[in-house]
Automatic annotation (TrEMBL):
The lineage of its organism: Bacteria, Pseudomonadati, Pseudomonadota, Betaproteobacteria, Burkholderiales. SUPFAM superfamilies: S-adenosyl-L-methionine-dependent methyltransferases. It is found in: Cytoplasm. The keyword Methyltransferase applies. It comes from Diaphorobacter ruginosibacter. GO terms for molecular function: protein-lysine N-methyltransferase activity. Its EC number is 2.1.1.-. This is Ribosomal protein L11 methyltransferase.
Amino acid sequence: MYELSLLSPEERVEDLSEALEALDALSVSVEDADAQTDAEQALFGEPGMPAPKGGWNRSRVVALFQTREQGEEAQQILQVQDFFEGCSIVALTEVQDQDWVRITQSQFAPVDITEDFWIVPSWHEPPAAAKHCIRLDPGLAFGTGTHPTTRMCLRWIARHGQEAGVLGRVLDYGCGSGILAIGAAKFGAKDIDAVDIDQAAVDSTIANASANNVTLKAGLPDKAEGRYDLVLANILATPLKVLAPLLCAHVAEGGALVMAGILERQEDELKEAYAPWLKLGVSDREDGWILMTARR
Ligand SMILES: C[S@@+](CC[C@H](N)C(=O)[O-])C[C@H]1O[C@@H](n2cnc3c(N)ncnc32)[C@H](O)[C@@H]1O
């Protein structure tokens, strides 16, 4: 592809951009030609107020063309237009192809939850230390293993799964990518329900479970049924408070409730909201987030 860059005074930017689009530019971008210099202008206004000005004194307009011929033709046509007065051509240059897939993938490396429990994207080989491994690619649903709330839940699963040998019947409430449900399966859970209010999350959980050879039932929240040995819920403090009676009702005798999405300052309000059913405590902390758990 080829990039045609031009300089334009503020009052010509709109005409120039429209003309470039009409000349088959794949994209047109506009930026401050004086950026990073003493003449750089800030164009944002105070919150709720209009920007003080519509454009920069001098704008750099960049248009992308599929072929060199298209770029050259656009250059010739623009230079003879009335509205081109005050504008100038800077350059027509070839844009080197990038392997965007590879660049994107390189931003997602394997993530360690414990020494031997890893989340590994499909384009990476699992590290040698990964005795337990979830294969997961970033997608539409929340839950790649990098967020502290997810990590604390997974650490709890690893610790208790290893100690007890089994996790029993598990409910992942607000499953997102299904990462917690899949993690529970890796540590011995056999009968797993994963639910979410977002159908895209349910679909993502089904796909991710299948990629990990994990059997579970995924669906909307009304799929949650009966009592579970472990109820996992990584949502946020406000919905967790609303869900208190429902989540507690799903915890079996001797079972555990494990919740994340709660900030340190929200500890007391969560304890209070759950007090009629279960006594919550803080089991883990990371980056200002806490993991709150209870046993029935
Ligand atoms: C922070 S993400 C957690 C995803 C994943 N479980 C994890 O730990 O990474 C929260 C998920 O809860 C879902 N959610 C939010 N409110 C909910 C509700 N009232 N009932 C069920 N799911 C809910 C969202 O759609 C989202 O997928």
